[in-house]
Amino acid sequence: MTITFYKYHGTGNDFIILDNRAQHNGKLTEEEIRHLCHRRFGIGADGLMLLTLAEGYDFGMTYYNADGREGSMCGNGGRCMVKFAYDLGIHRSAYRFLATDGDHEAELDISGIVRLRMNDVDKVDASLDSYILNTGSPHYVKFQPEVKDFDVIGEGRAIRNSKKFIREGINVNFVETLNDHTIFVRTYERRPLAAD
């Protein structure tokens, strides 16, 4: 099988993207997606996305995790998909697209920067030192001083792989408040265990 693919990255996440408006690529299996995303034996990526037709929208976005399973909304993936749509000739001043968690709006400025509006968070579970919320993907948020020097990998991995989150995973965000208008965030991503 021959597949035309593109590779995009956003803020450190990389994606294989396929133009599936003609529905040629919609039959990929979990195993095929897992192989394509494998970093040593495939193309290598954090996920695979399909740009599709979606009635009433500029396009649709289907996202698959590197383990081959369909995933939840990915903000960096959404930003890449908007740029991909533009590169395919879908030129808009503002984009509206459909993802697994509903519709999204985005803009692409003249310098190529994509601004994406994520869906509003409707529930936040707060504990003594953290917050759990869903932006289309689950996030664990913990305020942490001196984030720049914090062991994000070790602490993030421990939280992501803890008994509570081991099955579905969770993005772990460590946040430092710099001033009234600025925060500094470092994230340990919830990459599926099978994709390593």
Question: How many domains is the backbone divided into?
Answer: 2
CATH topology call of the largest domain: Diaminopimelate Epimerase, Chain A, domain 1
> Which consecutive residue ranges, at least 5 long each, have pLDDT under 50?
none
Q: Shape, please? A: globular
- Kindly state the number of beta strands: 12
Give the biggest beta sheet.
7 strands, mixed
Oligomer: single chain
> How large, in whole angstroms, is the Cα Rg?
17 Å
Terminal residue distance: 25 Å
Descriptive tags:
196 residues; Diaminopimelate Epimerase, Chain A, domain 1; 7-stranded mixed beta sheet; 5-stranded mixed beta sheet; 15% helix; globular
Overview of the molecule:
The chain has 196 residues and is of the alpha+beta class. The protein has 2 domains: 112 residues, Diaminopimelate Epimerase, Chain A, domain 1 (Roll); 72 residues, Diaminopimelate Epimerase, Chain A, domain 1. 15% of the residues lie in helices and 36% in strands. It has 3 helices and 12 strands, in the order E-E-H-E-E-H-E-E-E-E-E-E-H-E-E. A 7-stranded mixed β-sheet has the order 1-2-3-4-5-6-7, sandwiched between helices. The longest helix is centred in the middle third of the chain and has 13 residues. The radius of gyration is 17 Å and the shape is globular. It starts with 5 loop residues before the first strand and ends in an 8-residue tail after the last strand. The model has no long low-confidence stretch (mean pLDDT 91).
